[in-house]
Structure formats: C-alpha cells, structure tokens
Amino acid sequence: MARIDRFEMERMQSLYWHLVDYDLSESGVSPMSIAELLEGTDLGDAATFAQTKLGYPLSEGSELTRERIAQWYPGATHANVTVVNGGSEANFLSLFTLLGRGDRLAFEVPNYLQGPGLGRFFGDGTDTFRLKLRGGRWGLDVDELERAVGKRTKVIMVCNPNNPTGAVMSGEEMDAVVRVAERRGAWIVADEIYRGTEVEGDEPSPSFWGRSERVVVTSGLSKAFGLPGLRIGWAVGPEAFIHDLWERHDYTTLTPGMASDILCGAAMEPSKRAAIFDRTRGIVRSQLPRMEEWIHTHDDIFHYARPTAGAIAYVKYRLPVSSTKLVDRIRE
C-alpha cells in the first residue's frame, strides 16, 4: 500500500493547539464573527441567517459564490472556479489532478510544507528551490529554480505572498517563474492565500492568474479574510483543469458546507471584500510595529526582514538550541 509522508509540522502544532494560553504560531489575524461578516450584506442579521436550511450545496460551490470569487481574477468566470474545504484542500486537489507517475514537483521553500509529501505521493518526487535573504529582502533564487525544474517537472508550486517570510515576488521574479515553466511545459500552482494582507498600500499583491495558460491559483478565506473557521478554499484555473479537479473532489469532501458557501459569497461581494481587507490590513499594521520593537531590543540574537504582506514573520535567531527544542522549552 502506498504511504504518504507524515506531515510533521501539522502533527507538531496540533499536539498542543488550543491547549496553550498564548499561540505564538498563529498564522492569521484575529478572526471575524458571523455577526461582523453579516453586517452590511443582503443576508440580514445573525438571527435571520440562523434560519438557513443546512442541505447539500452544489459540489463545486454556488454559482453566485463562484462568480464573486472570479471577479477577483480579471478575465475569469464562474467556470474557472471551484470551491472546496479550505486552501489546503485546494492545494491537495490541484496536485492530485496534475501529478502522476513519473512526474516531479518543484517546490519553493520556505513555505507551508504541504507540498513535498504530496509531490512524493502523487508524483515521483519533489525538488526544492529557495527564497534567499539578501540585502534585507527575501528574493527568489532564479538559478536554483532553473536547476530544480527538469524534464520531468510537471508542476512548479509557489506561495505568493510567501508563508512564512511575508515576501512578495517582484514582476521580474514572477516572469522568471513563468519563463521556466513555459520552457518545460510545466504548470504553475500559486498559493495566494495571503493576498490582501499588505503591510503598505491598498492594492492587493499581484496574482499569477493570467500570466500563462497553465496557471492554477489556490486561495481561501482563512488568512487575509480572517475567516478560517468557515473552511472555504478555492482553485482558479482553465476550465478543463477545473473539470478534472471537480471529479477528484468527488472522492474527498464532495461539497463545501452550505452555511460556509453562503457566507463565502457574502465575503467575496466586492465592497464587503474591500472592507474585510481594510480590517485585516489595519490589524497587521497596528501589530507589526509592536513585534518589531521587541525584536530590535534583541538585535544581538535576531535577524529580521520586514514582511511585505502576511500576518506572520520569519525571524532567524542565533542561539545554541534547535527550533524544535526551543519551541518545546517555551511551551513547557
């Protein structure tokens, strides 16, 4: 029987999740309540919404929800979108759809480490390329990308804005990813779940959508929207790809939840989406300076590059202890 790698990061975090008083590894902003989300929408108040009948929704998500998601990706329609249970399922199903025997995954690191195990499970292995810290900025190592993408590479997977560094690729870096992918005939799977959490400015980070014919964007409501409990994610891609992913979704969770589908449609209405992002950016911009102030009182220990977007930061430290032992020591 084929075995999938143990997802060490999730197993470690889940061991003490909700059991500690302070969660220093939280990867999103303070979550919204249902009442906050309903405010200003056409769904009424919480008491009215509570009358929603909890039947089965469409397995791909309601047409209204998919239309509103598509509006965030110029040129996309509801036929380019399918709704699933969380961004992690969107990543899972995308790699399930694209990878097969003999295929390899090229995976950006640092990253949310879901990809490597899936590359080995659905394909023939995973090769990595790095973001490197240079001159106070995390940037793509294009030479490593070139080496990681070979004749058998079927998918290049990136996370932009990046988890955990908060880096956002420049236009030149995004062009390099597209150029390498097109030369090899590979797909790009871009996890863009932090798009909308920018530290400066009101424009969302640039998307990979529309930069190549073989681009899949995955995202969801967990990070930038502050709605992780809805467990809503989506994939945006060419219609034929979406059809193939939808068929594989039949073998996993089949449908999103009815209440979550409806609330996602409310969250993705353009004016509500803008209001949610204003809230998220306000939280990030008020809290980040407090963290930076503390970091800079320990400049002899920490090395830090300010994130461009996101709700977390990747802080390097100089201490004679491994990160796993350090985390356990803090927890205990």
Helices and strands, with pairings:
Blueprint: H1 8-16, H2 34-38, H3 46-49, H4 63-70, E1 81-84, H5 87-98, E2 104-109, H6 115-122, E3 126-134, E4 137-140, H7 142-148, E5 153-159, H8 171-184, E6 187-191, E7 215-220, E8 233-236, H9 239-249, H10 258-267, H11 270-295, E9 302-303, E10 316-317, H12 323-331
Parallel strand pairs: 2-3, 2-5, 5-6, 6-7
Antiparallel strand pairs: 1-8, 3-4, 7-8, 9-10
Can you walk me through this structure?
The protein has 332 residues and is α/β, with parallel strands linked by helices. 37% of the residues lie in helices and 15% in strands. Helix 4 (63-70) runs parallel beside helix 10, helix 5 (87-98) runs parallel beside helix 6 (115-122) and helix 5 (87-98) crosses helix 9. The longest helix is centred in the last third of the chain and has 26 residues, at 270-295. The relative contact order is 0.17.
Separation of the first and last Cα atoms: 38 Å
Mind telling me the C-alpha Rg? 20 Å
Secondary-structure element string: HHHHEHEHEEHEHEEEHHHEEH
Alpha-beta classification: alpha/beta
Number of domains: 1
Report the sheet-strand fraction. 5-15%
Low-confidence stretches: none
Strand order of the largest sheet: 1-8-7-6-5-2-3-4
- Please state the second-level CATH architecture: 3-Layer(aba) Sandwich
CATH topology tier name:
Aspartate Aminotransferase, domain 2
Shape summary:
globular
Number of helices: 12
How many distinct beta strands? 10
**At the fourth CATH level, what is the homologous superfamily?**
Type I PLP-dependent aspartate aminotransferase-like (Major domain)
Largest sheet: 8 strands, mixed
The percent range for helix content is: 25-40%
The pLDDT mean sits at 95
